[in-house]
Amino acid sequence: MGTVHARSMDPLPMHGRDMGVHPDDMIEVQEAEQETKQEVLENKDVVVQHVNIEGLGRTKEDLLGYEISEVFHAKNLIDVMKKSHIARQKLLRLGIFKEVEVVIDTSDGADALPNGLDVTFEVTEMKRLTGSYNTMVGNNEGSMVLGVKLPNVFGRAEKLTFQFSYGTKETSYGLSFFKPQPGNFERNLALNLYKVTGQFPWSSLKETDRGVSTELNFPLWRTNHTLKWEGVWRELGCLARSASFAVREESGHTLKSALSHTMSIDTRNSAIFPKKGALLRINQELAGYTGGDASFLKEDFELQVNRRLVWDSVLSASLWGGCLLPIGGRPSSIADRFYLGGPTSVRGFGMYSIGPQSEGDYLGGEAYWAGGLHLYTPLPFRPGRAGFGDLFRTHFFLNAGNLCNLNYGEGPRAHLQRLAECIRWSYGAGIVLRLANIARLELNYCIPMGVQSGDRICDGVQFGAGIRFL
């Protein structure tokens, strides 16, 4: 609960002759006081009379009232401590305080009740301007990130952030503004202005995006939702002179204006090494109805279920899928299609090297599915147990999937048949390393099967790094 101070409720020391009190009477008084204190500590009703916040500078007090209001509803000392801990976590979650400490004391003053308590939160605000330097790991790529942040810009947990990222495959910078709803941090609004340059060697493609987006995040029952609008000017070019004609044909400038909605339910105990729980994420994107020359409807989903077995082992099953439907007779863009293959999806195949291709360049597909089954176990003989060794897991896996284009003039049965043809699959084993709770590294020995003409394979040892794995 952080640092919680419960100041002494012992009576002041008294000495008989000076106070005119007999020593035996003094002992009786102390015992009575001790019994009263013990009763308060042990579930007797208490009343939280005052909740104070010390150390505020630019933060508006009305914002914090929502976060600490539950403390007033505590009924006993244990409840006060629990609700104070929850309030402290809420205050830290706002991202505007460097430190928050809690002091619980008996009430003082003329209005003090015998069972009254005062709770004080001692806070230290963050500086008006902070900088950061760190590295990030994405799906098989890494980058260096420099950032400047202005927390609590207007005093109600707003945040203005500028980031510059230089990576192995892309360089980007962006300016974002974040505004939470007072009393409901999960309900927030974000505005973004950005430029992103990415290189995609599997397609001999280079893409530069300049855009603006706004998104609203909010919880609804047990689900989390994101509504987003994005307007982006995309510049596509060839990464190499050897790029295929199909890639050259798609080079040039396009405008995309899209509305999207994402719904997720996540009951996992960990995003990287879950031992129990499930994840369901569904995303819909509609482009073209708010402008731009890209016009399509795109749907995709992700499902993961985890079950704990004996000897601290975990069985995990995952299923991904999606389809893209061009609208208005316009063909889909290489920048909007799905890609499959590599150490983060169907292992044993090259990065995004499954599906339609032209002269060695992979063009992506308008429909795909992928499934995975994993058995995670601790390292043999459990070295470094309850310490460094818990960052590692061994896993045995079976992956399968397919990526293709569909003829939407055909019926659903023909579509399913197409997706069931030419299934790529692989199996193997490896070691997984958890990096905090945001990313993981994998070193696997893979045996690819169902290889089709044009697929690139990685038969044997394959290394992967990323934040999202099948």
TrEMBL record:
Manganese keyword on record: no
Family matches, as Pfam families: Omp85
Gene3D superfamilies named in the record: membrane protein fhac, membrane protein fhac: a member of the omp85/tpsb transporter family
Bilayer topology: Multi-pass membrane protein
Major localization class: mitochondrion
Annotated ranges, domain POTRA: 46-126
Region named Disordered: 1-21
A GO biological process held by the record: protein insertion into mitochondrial outer membrane
Keyword terms: Membrane, Mitochondrion, Mitochondrion outer membrane, Transmembrane, Transmembrane beta strand
GO cellular component, one term: mitochondrial outer membrane
Annotated compartments: Mitochondrion outer membrane
Family per similarity comment: Belongs to the SAM50/omp85 family.
Record PANTHER family: SORTING AND ASSEMBLY MACHINERY COMPONENT 50 HOMOLOG, SORTING AND ASSEMBLY MACHINERY SAMM50 PROTEIN FAMILY MEMBER
Name of the protein: Sorting and assembly machinery component 50 homolog, like
